[in-house]
TrEMBL record:
Family that this chain belongs to: Belongs to the glycosyl hydrolase 1 family.
GO biological process, one term: cellulose catabolic process
Pfam entry (one): Glyco_hydro_1
EC numbers: 3.2.1.21
NCBIfam families listed in its UniProt record: BGL
Residues annotated for substrate binding in this entry: Q54, H155, N198, Y346, W454, E461, W462
TM spans (from-to): none
Catalytic-site annotation from UniProt: E199, E403
The keyword Hydrolase is assigned to this record: yes
Source species: Brockia lithotrophica
Protein name per Swiss-Prot or TrEMBL: Beta-glucosidase
InterPro entries in alphabetical order: GH, GH_1_N_CS, Glyco_hydro_1, Glyco_hydro_1_AS, Glyco_hydro_1_beta-glucosidase
Length: 500
């Protein structure tokens, strides 16, 4: 049943008498061994997730402006399979069908993002009412089906008009982002959960260091400024949210988290693994609670900007900000309470020490076991470990697992009666195993309030284009037909078994 607007589901640990620190019981099951997952708390928020650019299409309709991804995807060679997101799943025209699929799935929540350039084609200024009305209708339809909207304000689709003015490397973009967020807070009614940013670490590194994602730059110095302005934008958006006094609504941020596993117990590789995990997992979370970056992140910034000699002792934050001409006082403003933390988890990161590595001695290793079509290792235990770490490091803050899923090479088959089936038992097993990992974290006292599968639909998987399929629902990109997969029904059974 749909909860009161903004109410985070409350629960008790499913194990009678369980308290904080309760140990996990029994051996860790393999994904293929996990068949039935039940016993999660009453009121647990079961959901699925998508993002605007990856599913909406309608790239130039009803007043929408271009985003950095519209421009980037059209550059030859940037997308592995040569596709673009102009149509994607055509969700913009087929959203009612997709809401029906959500209702059939039986989930309690749907996480989606708003396309910034669909609402503000120039990134600021005049509002495109047709774009905003699309999201109003979607929110209303979700409410009518008893599904809670979980809205991500920014999922990587910066208006290209703002990028031409410097994008996230410029302070003004953080201000414009907060104004855009404030517009959504005021005009999109009935949203119980708001997420400011999705995976800012990924957007920073792949967009401004490696250049694999839009806007495709390779400028580490600029990347540090981008990271700062992401945090500033989040901070200003949270302030705007608090100013609205939205009774019952909650606000948080979503970050990609990984478990970094060193190859062996050598002191050097263990130290490198710890430092990378703190950089990856803490860069966009620590400042929200402490007003400071993790020291490991500061050392990484120093190496990026000045080489090994930059990794000195002393007040690295002050030195770094002086060199980049950033206001040091911003750091204290970053310390803003959030109502929940969103955790995206897919796989672990295995590392070794190699002095010849271009990453300062850190060498990234291939998966050690079963892997998905993305080449990502299937390691459900890592989700339990990440949740335990987040709970320990940032106590008292509820957690939502805002993304978890797997890509496989799905192929539909036509049955004798003419119906179509997509048998993706590997994905079904992946989901079962990771829900079990969440249950184990709950047993040990972690305050996890919800779990969202990525994704409802196959979609445009960024630099991989349409070639990688994460959906519970197969999308035939030639006809745009939707075909629920085996994993769709497996996840529905999990939701039903847990009171959904």
């Amino acid at each position: 049943m749909f909860r009161a607007r903004g109410e985070l589901p409350r629960h008790r640990c499913p194990v009678p008498g369980c308290g904080r620190g309760h140990p996990a019981r029994g051996k860790r099951p393999k994904p293929s061994e996990v068949k039935d997952v039940a016993g999660l708390p009453e009121g647990f928020l079961w959901g699925v997730a998508t993002s605007a650019y990856q599913i909406e299409g309608a790239a130039a309709e009803d007043g929408r402006g271009p985003s950095i991804w519209d421009v980037f995807a059209h550059i030859p060679g940037k997308i592995a399979d040569g596709t673009v997101g102009d149509v994607a799943c055509d969700h913009y025209h087929r959203w009612e069908e997709d809401v029906n699929l959500l209702a059939e799935l039986g989930v309690r929540a749907y996480r989606f993002s708003v396309s910034w350039p669909r609402v503000l084609p120039e990134g600021k200024g005049a509002v495109n009412e047709r774009g905003l009305d699309f999201y109003r209708r979607l929110v209303e339809a979700l409410h009518s089906r008893g599904i809670a909207p979980v809205v991500t304000v920014y999922h990587w689709d910066l208006p290209f008009a703002l990028y031409e003015k410097g994008g996230w490397a410029e302070r003004d973009t953080a201000k414009y982002f907060a104004e855009y967020a404030h517009l959504l807070f005021r005009r999109l009614e009935g949203v119980p959960y708001w997420i400011t940013l999705n995976e800012p670490f990924v957007a920073t590194v792949l967009g401004y260091v490696t250049g694999e994602h839009a806007p495709g730059e390779q400028d580490p110095r600029k990347a540090v400024r981008v990271a700062h302005h992401f945090l500033l934008g989040h901070t200003l958006a949270v302030r705007a949210f608090r100013d609205e006094h939205l009774t019952g609504s909650r606000i948080g941020i979503t970050n990609l988290m990984t478990r970094v596993l060193p190859a062996g117990e050598d002191r050097e590789v263990v130290g490198f693994a710890y430092a990378f995990e703190r950089l990856h997992n803490g860069l966009f979370v620590d400042p929200l609670f402490t007003g400071h970056y993790p020291r490991e992140a500061l050392l990484a910034f120093a190496r990026i900007l000045w080489g090994e000699e930059g990794a000195r002792d002393g007040d690295l934050e002050a030195y770094l900000y002086a060199q980049l001409e950033l206001p040091l006082e911003d750091l204290e403003t970053f310390r803003q309470p959030v109502d929940f933390l969103g955790v995206n988890y897919y796989s672990p990161t295995r590392v070794a020490f190699n002095p010849a590595s271009p990453f300062g001695g850190l060498e990234f290793l291939p998966p050690a076991g079963e892997a998905t079509a993305m080449g990502w290792e299937v390691y459900p235990q890592g989700l339990t470990e990440v949740l335990l770490e987040v709970h320990s490091r940032y106590p008292g803050v509820p957690i939502l697992v805002t993304e978890n899923g797997a890509a496989y090479d799905d192929t539909p088959e036509v049955l004798p009666d003419g119906t179509k089936r997509v048998a993706d038992e590997a994905r079904a097993n992946y989901i079962r195993a990771h829900v079990e990992a969440v249950r184990r974290a709950l047993e040990r006292g972690v305050d996890v309030r919800g779990y969202f599968v990525w994704s409802l639909l196959d979609n445009f998987e960024w630099a991989h284009g349409l070639s990688k399929r994460f959906g519970l629902v197969y999308v035939d990109y030639a006809t745009l037909e939707r075909i629920p997969k085996t994993s769709f029904f497996a996840y529905r059974e999990i939701v039903q078994a847990n009171g959904g």
